[in-house]
């Protein structure tokens, strides 16, 4: 948006100032979106390799020799859970986190479309997790649901007041 000035130096269309709280929330969303997009893309790329490693008894025996029994069983349980999930989930969530990041960038620029992009991406991430992760593994989705609701609510307060 271009600023237009009156002759007396006052602005007709002043550029809106981004509140500090909105800046902090956007920065947290940048970090989350970028990190999760990269993380899930890496899991997508390494999915087949890790499944082969988990099926290799010799490799797992070497891994067990590097850890004590409880550590090894915990790590093995996590890996089996992570890599029993269809690898399409990791690609899908990677792309959705890119959408979340883009929405945060638009909100950083004080554009209302950013709220919609961010909210839709976050809701689709929850739906994908319910279908691919929470349902099959029996894990609880409540922490993710609560955090998503908090961020969308925070952004919504600025959507109504500040964004154009």
Strand share of the residues? under 5%
Helix count equals 6
Distance between the termini: 10 Å
Low-confidence stretches: none
Structural class category: mainly alpha
What percent of the residues sit in helical stretches (DSSP H or I)? Answer: over 70%
- Please describe the biggest sheet, giving its number of strands, its sense, and whether it closes into a barrel: none
Basic shape: elongated
Task: Name the quaternary structure.
Answer: single chain
Describe this structure in words.
This protein has 164 residues and is mostly helical. Helices cover 78% and strands 0% of the residues. The protein is built from six helices and no strands. Helix 1 packs antiparallel against helix 4. The chain is elongated and about 80 Å long. The chain starts with 19 loop residues before the first helix and ends with a helix. The model has no long low-confidence stretch (mean pLDDT 87).
Descriptive keywords:
164 residues, mainly alpha, 6 helices, elongated
Describe the structure concisely:
78% of the residues lie in helices and 0% in strands. The protein has helices spanning 20-55, 57-65, 69-84, 87-108, 113-137, 142-161.
How would the blueprint of this fold be written?
Elements: H1 20-55, H2 57-65, H3 69-84, H4 87-108, H5 113-137, H6 142-161
């Amino acid at each position: 948006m271009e600023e237009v000035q009156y002759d007396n130096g006052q602005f007709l269309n002043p550029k809106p100032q981004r509140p500090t709280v909105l800046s902090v929330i956007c920065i947290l969303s940048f970090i989350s979106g970028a990190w999760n997009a990269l993380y899930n893309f890496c899991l997508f790329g390494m999915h087949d390799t890790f499944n082969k490693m988990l099926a290799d008894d010799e490799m797992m025996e070497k891994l067990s020799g590097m850890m004590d029994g409880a550590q090894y069983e915990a790590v093995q349980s996590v890996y089996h859970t992570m890599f029993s999930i269809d690898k399409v989930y990791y690609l899908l969530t990677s792309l959705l986190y890119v959408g979340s990041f883009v929405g945060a960038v638009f909100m950083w620029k004080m554009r209302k479309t950013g709220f919609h992009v961010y909210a839709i991406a976050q809701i689709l991430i929850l739906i994908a997790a319910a279908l691919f992760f929470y349902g099959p593994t029996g894990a609880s989705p409540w922490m993710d649901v609560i955090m998503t609701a908090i961020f969308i609510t925070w952004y919504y307060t600025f959507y109504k007041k500040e964004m154009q």
